[in-house]
Write a structure and sequence with these properties.
Blueprint (H helix, E strand, L loop, with lengths): L1 H25 L8 H37 L3 H35 L5 H25 L4 H57 L5 H30 L5 H39 L7 H24 L5
Helix pairs in contact: 1-2, 1-3, 1-5, 2-3, 3-4, 3-5, 4-5, 5-6, 5-7, 5-8, 6-7, 7-8
């Protein structure tokens, strides 16, 4: 019976630490997110924390029953102990499912990732949920040995899932960087066209061209950091969690560096727009300038979005 408690307890320790930490990361700003999606995510998140709190209560009951059986090894105490162990394992599964529901809701809310990538990630999570629900059914009438076996399987599965979550979060960060970088590249192309128009009109565009070259170089640096981060995220597989943590830490640092280049590129873009305005008589007679202004506003929003995705925007 001691083995039952030990295995079950170990199966939940990682959940309580990693799950709550991940919730803090996922709960960063919701700027630009549909209100109804935000409400659904918050509801799922609150339900997850309720389940965690209830689990703590069930765990206390299990500890009490274990101690009672340790002191008085009666048939009744053994039955109660096994019942509490079964209840605790059942509730552990509930918490894991709620954790996955919360993660799925968060992913559903994300902008800047392709629908195919979103559905692929959600499909993986749904498979996890189905597996856990099947385990839940087998626990209901499980014997003491079966309870211990199920607890060990769930613990192993959750360790694997923790690595999956890190990889999923990394995929989303990279997808969102792709989206922001694409926005910059579109803006760069528009500015290049405007520069050619100004040249044809006999205007001096040397400063704008220099700034544009600088912006493009920073975006290229951001792409290189993104690619390096993606390689590390892709390396996170079914491995020891300490290895997964180290890879995730290194990849996240690369994402932050990519974000820094995005910020720098945005500052240069502001200068470019300022220079273009000097050459423009009015935005009405120079539609390209209006487009540059719009790009500036869009990039500002995207920059904030990158902060949300990488966890650099503190609440």
């Amino acid at each position: 019976m001691k083995k039952i408690s030990k295995i079950i307890a170990l199966s939940i320790m990682g959940l309580l630490v990693f799950g709550i930490f991940s919730q803090a990361v996922l709960a960063k700003n919701f700027s630009g997110v549909n209100k109804s999606f935000k409400e659904k995510y918050q509801a799922a998140r609150q339900q997850y924390f309720k389940e965690v709190n209830f689990l703590k209560n069930v765990r206390h009951k299990l500890s009490t029953a274990r101690e009672k059986y340790r002191v008085f090894k009666t048939k009744q105490n053994k039955t109660t102990y096994e019942s509490r162990a079964r209840e605790f394992l059942d509730k552990t599964i509930d918490v894991l499912v709620k954790r996955l529901d919360s993660l799925k809701s968060w992913i559903s809310n994300r902008t800047g990732i392709s629908e195919s990538s979103r559905q692929d990630i959600i499909s993986k999570i749904d498979n996890d949920i189905s597996w856990l629900e099947n385990q839940k059914q087998s626990v209901e009438n499980a014997s003491s040995s079966e309870i211990a076996k199920s607890a060990g399987m769930i613990r192993k599965h959750w360790t694997k899932h923790r690595s999956l979550v890190k990889r999923v979060i990394g995929e989303i960060w990279c997808e969102r960087l792709n989206w922001i970088i694409a926005k910059f590249e579109n803006v760069s192309a528009s500015i290049s066209q405007k520069v050619e128009q100004l040249k044809a009109a006999g205007k001096d565009t040397s400063k704008v061209e220099s700034l544009l070259s600088d912006m493009n170089a920073k975006i290229e640096n951001a792409k290189q950091k993104r690619d390096a981060a993606r390689d590390k995220f892709d390396s996170i597989t079914d491995m020891d969690i300490s290895q997964a943590n180290q890879l995730f830490k290194e990849a996240h640092q690369l994402i932050l560096e990519a974000n820094s280049y995005i910020r720098q590129a945005h500052r240069v873009l502001v200068e470019i727009v300022r220079e273009l305005k000097k050459e423009a008589e009015t935005s009405a007679t120079n539609p390209g300038i209006g487009a540059a202004n719009e790009s500036n506003n869009t990039t500002t929003e995207n920059n904030a979005t990158t902060e949300e995705a990488t966890g650099t925007n503190s609440e």
